[in-house]
Amino acid sequence: MSEFREELLVTAINKKRVIKIILTAVLLVVAFAFSTFFFSLLWDSQRPLPSDELAEAEQEDGVPTQIPFPYNMSDFQDLFSDLDLTPDELTDLLDALSDMFDGDIDDLDLSDYGQALAALMFSEVEVFRIFDYDDYNEILTKFWKYESFDEYTGDGWHSSAATAPFSYYPLVDYFSEHWDKDLLSLQIPLTPSIGINSMVIPNLFPTPFIMENSVQANNMQGIPNLFKDEFNCTTLDIDFSIEEDVNMTYELFGLDLPTSSEIDAVAIEPLYTPIPIQSKYLQLKGDTINVYISNNDDFAYHYNQINATLLSSDNTFIVADKIRNYLQYNFIRISNPDQYNPAPEGYDQVEWFLEEGIGYWSDFTSAFCAFSRAFGIASRFVNGFNSFLAEELIDNSTGQDVVVIRYKNMYNWAEIYVPTDVSGDGIWIQMDVYYENYGSVPPSLADYNLILNSNFTAGYRGSQANLTAFLTLDGAPVEGATISFYDLTSLQPIGQSDTNLNGNASIIVNIDDLQVVGPHVIFTQYNPDVNDNTTYTVYGDIQVNLQNVNPQEVNISIDTSTNIQGFVYDPVANTNVGGTTLEVMLLQKGTNIRVGTPPFDLSYFNADPYGYFDININVDPSVSIGQYDLRVDT
User: Fold this and answer.
1) Exposed, middle or buried: residue 178 (CB in 10 Å: 0-12, 13-18, 19+)?
2) Count of alpha carbons within 13 Å of 325, Cβ hemisphere only?
3) Out of 4, 21, 56, 486, which residue is the most buried by the measure of CB atoms under 10 Å away?
């Protein structure tokens, strides 16, 4: 029964039937293709060849996507909320930090960076901490390198360095070749985004030895990619699975650096620097050195001053050290953010620093790099953090001793190329522009003493003042030092003089008609930290000119105040007299008779440094109703 039903339900398959099925399928495919072609012709909608369509397509540029860096800018805003910054200052600060920490080392705006240094000068906010060191004092000498730049642009620095993948350093090589070096652990607090995060990480000069399998952080996926540019700056690309705060740690070590004496012993003249290095580094704002000097008067002046100190026998390191010494002795480091005066837009940053005479680490280092290039020395600008006076604490989570690097440790230094052979072979070295000084104690720390005396203390015009400055170092006279003299009353330089064998430098000032009447504060300095002052007084007639008394009628039952404006003038010197002590008097009308009772709440006041005065005084209610004369006398 089942076999019978199967024969009824299943159609038999034979050769003839298979041929019919194939022919039917071919006929349907041909019919479909013909109908498609026919209607394409009818409606003129033929599909162009793929190659034709690509040739007719418009050119499109790819849109680069910035890889995020693992810092939350809103966290930065919270951290620096107590700095009393304006919105613009906070924006500049955040821009500078973003440029410094992100994984893209390209440009440094010196104006923004200066604002950041001003804002963070006293910041206790932590950047990273250091574990596993043997000697705390040794750590205090370390510079933690972030970025390095080769092209000075006038308003900042640009890096042309190419970046490439870099290998972690094998642990087996460390134990076989560098076992005597401290294997340091660094811990950096991060606020990463989900996915790849790119960041600059601090390393030590000259070569970044970042240890294999040492990068650790919660929620990290895989092994981070390590990159290094040709200036030995390092970046990490880290993949995070979760967006939450973490502490990233990694291990590194640094090499023992040559001492200044060792460098001096092998250094030769800058002219032996290889041509490719000269071509890359001996430029300023894209111009030749001579063009830059001719376009910047202050730079040209100080270039000539430095050049006068150089000897034909000076090697590259000695020339660089003399440039460094010159900047230390002749320019002032900003010690208070209120002293910071940013360069006007479009103004050359180095020229502005030389004109102002005061600046931050970035200004000293930029000027050093510019002058070193002007004397044929290849140099790079570096930013990062120093370890000076870094605090040692006990880490709460591990119980270990740690050194904490904070934002107040932001710093700049230089790297220069020192040829050691006429073939061009040489080494790159670090140069601390402000604090180090080869062969002597840095000027900021040396025990110099300067005393200024004047044989003229007071008198009329027609005399002379012999100003003598006496300079000692550790109590012994200093010969050949340049002493500068200034008249702070007239805000004019008096001149310069070099100390003699006895440590004395003298200069003569004629007390003539150009000397304004009144006290003169005379200031002298050897360097910004070594200075003194004295005072002499010029006698003569001066005039007090009242410009305005408002109101001239006072109803003491309504308002007792009146405003007095005027200036003090020296008719001989044809200039105002600043700082003069003045007395305001009320006289009986048409007489020189004073009102008996003190008529005002203020009797004496001083003109400003430019000789002007603008004061408000109140009439005493005891003054009788009537008309009076008001007079201001010296």
Assistant:
1) middle
2) 20
3) 486
